[in-house]
Amino acid sequence: MLKQDLRKEFSQKRKALIEQEVEGFSRKIHDWFFRSFPVHSYATIHTFLPIKHHKEIDTWLIINTLKKDFATNIVIPKSHADGTMTHYFLTEETIFEENQWKIPEPFPSKHLESSVSEIDLVLIPLLCFDKKGYRVGYGKGYYDRFLADCRADVLKIGLSIFEPVEQIKDVDTYDICLDYCITPNKIWSFL
């Protein structure tokens, strides 16, 4: 299927979910992540913050476990109108504001800004993915641009409520393949 058709189909599937389902899926993905990856060996982990009204995976479960049980730096993004993102360390002093898409973002503070080169692992939002590791997001290209700037060895992990589709037919040269994708039922590897 084409990205635009997949975007429409999986947005509708997400809308049909109830809050308790999203919570359950988020918990399962959280558990897979901490059971399956050597989280303690990554100094800096980048994660998206969930858009609740889009019924995204609740990454706050992962963030709270990282803060409680690991000596890991957590980095979160702030998007800009030009399609780029700036990345900030999450601290107890971080103040949030919602952007025009109702995404919670850190209120900028220069002393908390992270360099992309510091990031070791990225948790990536998506609507769906295919069996080759390509993803469909919301279509703005923020994560493809960001991932292109990351170190070659950064670990790229998608988080998906749904299992993969067979193939995304209109993959572009700038689309970056995931290393793994965690669903409520299993971890898909593309290495």
From TrEMBL:
<keyword id="KW-0067">ATP-binding</keyword>
<keyword id="KW-0479">Metal-binding</keyword>
<dbReference type="Pfam" id="PF01812">
    <property type="entry name" value="5-FTHF_cyc-lig"/>
</dbReference>
<keyword id="KW-0460">Magnesium</keyword>
<dbReference type="InterPro" id="IPR037171">
    <property type="entry name" value="NagB/RpiA_transferase-like"/>
</dbReference>
<dbReference type="InterPro" id="IPR024185">
    <property type="entry name" value="FTHF_cligase-like_sf"/>
</dbReference>
<dbReference type="InterPro" id="IPR002698">
    <property type="entry name" value="FTHF_cligase"/>
</dbReference>
<keyword id="KW-0547">Nucleotide-binding</keyword>
<protein>
    <recommendedName>
        <fullName>5-formyltetrahydrofolate cyclo-ligase</fullName>
        <ecNumber>6.3.3.2</ecNumber>
    </recommendedName>
</protein>
<comment type="similarity">
    <text>Belongs to the 5-formyltetrahydrofolate cyclo-ligase family.</text>
</comment>
